[in-house]
Design brief:
This protein has 20 helices and 10 strands. About 55% of the residues lie in helices and about 15% in strands. It has helices at about 5-20, 40-50, 75, 90-100, 105-110, 115-130, 140-155, 160-165, 170-185, 200-225, 250-275, 290-300, 315-320, 325-330, 350-355, 360-380, 395-405, 415-420, 425-440, 455-470; strands at about 25-30, 55-60, 85-90, 130-140, 190-195, 280-285, 305-310, 340, 385-390, 445-450. This is Phosphate--AMP phosphotransferase.
Amino acid sequence: MTKIKEDLMLKTAELVRLTHEAKIPVMILFEGVAASGKSRLANELLLALDAKYTQFYATKTPTTEDLRLPFLYPYWKNLPARGEVTIYFRSWYASMLDYEEHGLKKEVYKDYKVLLEEIEVFENLLINDGYEIIKFNVEISEKKRKEHIEKTKENPLTRWKAEEFEHAIPKETYLDGMKKLVKATDAISPWTIINYSERNQAINDMYEVIIERLEAALKKQKKKKKQPADGKFTKNFTTDLFVDTEDDMSKKDYKKILPELQDRMREIQYALYEKKVPLILVYEGMDAAGKGGNIKRVRESLDPTGYEVNAISAPTETELSYPYLWRFAVDLPRTGHIEIFDRSWYGRVLVERVEGFASTDEWQRAYEEIKDFEKSLLIEGAIVIKFFLVLDKDEQLKRFEERQNTPDKQWKITDEDWRNREKWDIYLEASKDMIDKTSTEDAPWVIIPANNKKAARIKALKTIIEHCEKRLNI
């Protein structure tokens, strides 16, 4: 080992320890054609770093089961937590080219440019959340590349690796694709081209870039000031958006209509599975508006192997070490399945805004981040329906008191519920802003009057069925 290389390696290791202490998450990508030297560079770096907070992820051609999950799912799943490092041997870029080359999920994407949109949104979101993304595109002379392949072929124990090279994306296809992707995404987080024709120089170049980027990240972190957490609420706020809290529904009509809708819902579930369309249902609303009871009636007749309910509570310590969307992105449905969120990613612009858990900048930029996140779900072919259940203040008080005075319902009422009630007006404003800024044509908010629980349940079921029938053409 040369003195220069050793010094660079030690400096890199020292800086990574400092980014670990500063809670800066680092992502290092290695792209390049087969036998370009990227595996040697990645391993060189991996050996230099502390294994306690360094992970390695190698992108592979997706299996049939992988294709049932969103395109970026493996990368959400393998994000580094704050203060950790993940080295990616190939990345979402190689994955996109793989999808395009082999026509994967063509019936869903139609145009693979939508995957580039997903990549751009993904990287921007991470960078805004403090992630450092370092991207290397490894090049090599064709003569050196062929030497690597021939050497691999000569050894019986490594011959399989050479055969794997032959089944990779064709070199010219990969090079042409990466050239376009590098140009399209360099402005988000810059690419570094490394020529591996001379090994030691390539290693030194890699370390120098990482050192420069980590020093800049640490300097930026040091200058960073604590962001204010101002919900920016309006004094004496009023809105007529939620005044319609009552729908008529007799007990007799409810008992007749509910079973019919639930039977149709079960048929819808089977149709979703057959056509491999994921359904995502989001429930938000005022405390005691009946979200749990509403969800129960939606799933009451469903096949339990085909749906899951996510009851969202305050994030855990582990979840707080990732971007706020992470815990939802790693829990999305496979194709043909139903995922129901009892509370959701909208916590960032509701409770976190109201309670000051998110800085002003964080909750204000979340509207666009959430719309982009939901757009990626739509790109993946999902049906997304969002319900907001509303009731009036007097009805909420009545339900609170009923829960408090009924022994088997007391677990449903907490001190936090009473505190939230005191903030009724600012929750109204946060809710209105959320609906105004994130309701889109393809992922609309459906406001459900919830003073009458029976009517609210029927309206939700009818809405789900109508959306699914239209999409599935049944």
